[in-house]
Amino acid sequence: MYIYLITFTEFSRGILQMTIRRFLERKANEVRDVTIKVNYNPYAEGSCLVKFGHTHIICTASVDESVPPFLRGKGKGWITAEYGMIPRSTHSRMRREASSRQQNGRTQEIQRLIGRSLRSVVDLKKLGERQIIIDCDVLQADGGTRTAAITGGYVALVTAINHLIASKKIKNNPIINQIAAISCGILNDQALVDLDYAEDSRAEVDANFVMTIDGKLVELQSTAEGAPFTREQFSDMLDLSSQAIEKLIVLQSNAIENYAQNSSKKSTDAVS
Questions:
Q1: Which of 110, 83, 111 is nearest to 97 (CA)?
Q2: Rama region for 39: left / alpha / beta (φ>0; ψ in -120 to 50; rest)
Q3: What is the mean pLDDT of residues 223-242?
Q4: CB 207 within 8 A of CB 185
Q5: 15: burial class by Cβ within 10 Å (0-12, 13-18, 19+)?
Q6: What pLDDT does residue 18 have?
Q7: CATH number, domain at 172?
Q8: Residue 243: inside a domain, yes or no?
Q9: Contact predicate 187/204, CB 8 Å
Q10: For residues 262 and 157, what is the distance between their CA atoms, to the nearest angstrom?
């Protein structure tokens, strides 16, 4: 059993330093409780509510029967993504980005990551000259929002494409692979998968892995927040992430299959 042990290590100039160790009965290789509720938004062509512990995100996929100007007349489609956090998704209220009339760098970086990741598993020519917009709205943030958005965004994308096939707008399924994503890190010299905010904010190394069903890497982000990390530590994180993503892909598949079998189109759940 792992527990969060908070120990007071130093009190200097009024600043209390704390060391945090994992617990909540979660081992180093265990993800948080994960739930995927398909068709959470009945108005969108595809949608789901994905939960990784206390991180909750609505992912919707909207079909737009047009493409960006740079793709017009080229006979192929596009997948793009937008990402945002509602004002009280964190411990203190955030200002809406719309009120500042511009997105911050973090938001732009995350939505580009989501879009790139999803495009990597779609044959854009089979999609035709249309685009699918994936909106990822964070209701509650407790670490791992970008990876949860990719995992849920894939489910929303697949259900939207299934809608296009059922409505005979496309003949062949453009999905060519399956992806999921997970965060990982080094905390107190130990590799841990699926960091929550308390762990992520104090991790010595922070990483995000996007992988396919056959174990190929789509994208990885890994940063030493303090001292550099070793190749062995990177391998530990890769192994933990690969194992976690295998489980997430099974969960995605179950959620999509359960929804497809539900003729009433009510929302359906898949739970880890």
A1: 83
A2: left
A3: 95
A4: yes
A5: exposed
A6: 27
A7: 3.30.230.70
A8: yes
A9: yes
A10: 18
Q: Are 255 and 38 in contact (CB under 8 A)?
A: yes
Residue 218 within a domain: yes
Q: How far is Cα 116 from Cα 81, in angstroms, rounded to an integer?
A: 9
DSSP-derived secondary structure for 79-109: EEEEEEE-TTSSSSPPPPHHHHTS--HHHHH
* Residue 144 counted as domain residue: yes
Chain center to CA of 266? 23
Q: Looking up tokens 């990402």, which residue turns up?
A: 83
Domain count, the chain: 1
Residue 23 binned pLDDT confidence (cut-offs 50, 70, 90): low
pTM of the model: 0.87
Q: Is 3 a member of any domain?
A: no
Task: Write out pLDDT tens, residues 36-94.
Answer: 999 999 999 999 999 999 999 999 999 999 999 999 999 999 999 999 988 888 888 97
Could you list the residue range(s) of the whole structural domain that residue 246 is in?
A: 31-264
